[in-house]
Amino acid sequence: MSALVVMGLVLAGAAAADAPVEVQVTLEPPVIPFHRQARYTIAVDVAGDIEVKLPDMIGKFGGVDVHDVKRDIKPLKGERKRVTETYILDPILAATYPIAPAQVLWGEGSKIVLPSPALRVRNLTEAETAAAERFEPIAGPVSAPKPFWLTWPFWAALCAGVVLVVCAVMYWLRRRERIERATSPPPAWQVAYERLRELDQRQLAQSGNFEVYYVDLSAILRYYIEDRFQLRAPEQTTPEFLGEAASSGVLSEVHQRLVASFLRHCDRVKFAQYRPMLEEMERGFEVVLRFVDETVPEPKPVAEEEAA
């Protein structure tokens, strides 16, 4: 007999074929030599809407070690399913091992308890002992392989890896430099040139809109000075700005006089209701453009830029 099977049915007033719960306990094989494994399986066939709880059999095999536990759920006909748990038993000593009964819970407090067959572990037979004592012929000496770090494929792969890493680092550095150049704000003089170009295209001087013209022109100059020399030009009055520009030393005397003359002229237009002529408005535009042109920093020598 290759397996022992214990079955139990809970009929609940129905025929056996329609039993809501059917439990089967299998031990296969029931008798094994101590160097083999046995399979203890609890299989429960149940209607699809009934919940079942299988017992935890760890530690209930009379001292036999459990090598592995496998669980499976398989659909059956008639909206039924089969829930299976299989324990792989791994004994090491010859003896008879009693197994605890299997208690399966189902529904609301219902249960079924089935006895479990005992596992008998025997010693080896004479034929099994003779087979275990036979050995394969001793093979000849085997040359030990070289360590992998002494083979040419290892060094070829290492060199290729180093080249790839170097190329990847160079690509990343160049890409980061391009991204930084693309995202860094343009220099102050480029912004000033663009704003002057936009102001000239609006033709405010030619249309006689001198108040807006001088407000925008003086703002271009003040924001350029702030960005270029880090002076708080936009937030200060003309006397405050001229005083700070003189004390900071960032502007030459020529540029201080040039800026002072232009800002005072703008204040006359904005605060003293002075109506400038077209020639004066165009001259003010030329003053701001000249100041930006003369304060653009000199380009760095090529050798110095490469070193940086």
Helix content: 40-55%
Label the CATH architecture of the largest domain: Sandwich
Overall average pLDDT: 80
Shape: elongated
Strands, total number = 11
Spatial strand order of the main sheet: 1-2-4-7-6
- According to CATH, the fold-level topology of the largest domain is Immunoglobulin-like
Distance between the termini: 89 Å
Low-confidence residue ranges: 9-17, 135-140
Rg, Cα atoms, Å: 48 Å
Counted up, domains total 3
Number of helices: 8
Strand content: 15-25%
Summed up:
With 308 residues, this protein is of the alpha+beta class. The chain has 8 helices and 11 strands.
Present the secondary structure layout.
Elements: E1 4-10, E2 21-28, E3 31-33, E4 38-47, E5 52-53, E6 65-75, E7 80-90, E8 95-97, E9 102-106, E10 110-114, E11 119-122, H1 126-133, H2 152-183, H3 188-201, H4 210-229, H5 238-248, H6 253-271, H7 278-295, H8 302-307
Parallel strand pairs: 3-11
Antiparallel strand pairs: 1-2, 2-4, 4-7, 5-9, 6-7, 8-11, 9-10
